[in-house]
Design a protein that fits this description.
By secondary structure, the chain is an alpha+beta fold. It has a single domain, classed as Regulatory factor, effector binding domain (Multidrug-efflux Transporter 1 Regulator Bmrr, Chain A), CATH 3.20.80. The chain is about 15% helix and about 35% strand. It contains three helices and 19 strands. Strands 1, 2, 8, 10, 16, 17, 18 and 19 form an eight-stranded mixed sheet that branches. Strands 13-3-15 form a three-stranded antiparallel sheet, with helices on one face. Strand 11 and strand 12 form a beta hairpin. The longest helix is centred in the C-terminal third of the chain and has 17 residues. This is Heme-binding-like protein.
């Protein structure tokens, strides 16, 4: 029942709060390994498909769609991976190719008949990427959804995805301006909250260095007013 009432019981990424402002805070995150997949930002049903691909990779729905590592290489066993929070969602970006190159995703697709390793879920789920916009001001095109893997994993030890649409990569150390809110985590709400955060950062004269993203900590059946949602921008900030 805790997940219905907003309690986040899965692993969350460690971070340091550098400074709190009226409507947001500045956080510093260490580097972390992540599993990501593409999603269509302008199709309301596609985020569910992206989530399911990542959930199958870690074994949420049964046998994980991955290969466990054995001394740095893929083995013939499966490995469940614990869920973490948040899940990160990135809207589409005109600089998408550069973003992928900078994070150096490693894509490996071994045979599906081999074993897998279940991976614990973490939170949040992350969606991000700088946006391309339509005449109505809404983000369009291809975005990205990310599961941050438990802190114990490295690029060398993370289970290898068997779905070619799932890629494993390292998220570098980053400084983020984060705005937290409850209620709906719909894409239009994320866009509105990101615009509010941008205006607050501009007013505080904090330099934005990249695209905004959204982070969700709760499953969709959590009571809306008890959900923990976030939007963020990477920023340049010194204490």
């Amino acid at each position: 029942m805790g997940i219905v009432f907003g309690r986040v019981s899965v692993e969350q990424p460690a971070h340091e709060v550098l400074q709190k402002f009226g409507g947001f805070e500045i956080r510093k995150y260490p580097k972390q390994v992540a599993a990501s997949t593409d999603m269509s930002w302008d199709r309301s049903d596609d985020s569910g498909g992206a989530f399911q691909r990542l959930a199958r990779y870690i074994g949420v729905f049964g046998t994980p769609e991955n290969q466990a590592r054995a001394t740095g290489s893929a083995s013939d066993t499966q490995e469940p991976v614990a869920m973490t929070a948040p899940v990160v969602m990135n809207p589409p970006t005109e600089q998408a190719a550069e973003s992928v190159a900078m994070t150096a995703p490693v894509v490996m697709n071994p045979p599906k008949e081999q074993g897998a390793e279940a991976v614990a879920m973490t939170a949040p789920v992350v969606m991000e990427g700088a946006s391309t916009t339509s005449p109505d001001g809404q983000s369009k095109g291809k975005g990205e959804m990310t599961f941050l893997l438990p802190a114990k994993y490295t690029l060398e030890t993370a289970p290898v995805p068997t779905d070619p649409r799932v890629r494993i990569h390292e998220v570098p150390e980053r400084t983020l301006a984060v705005k937290t809110f409850s209620g709906s985590f719909a894409k239009d709400v994320q866009e509105s909250m990101a615009q509010q955060l941008k205006e607050e950062l501009d007013a505080a004269k904090i330099k934005i260095t990249g695209a905004w993203g959204g982070q969700g900590y709760n499953p969709p059946f959590t009571l809306p007013f008890l959900r923990t949602n976030e939007v963020f921008f990477p920023v340049e900030f010194s204490v």
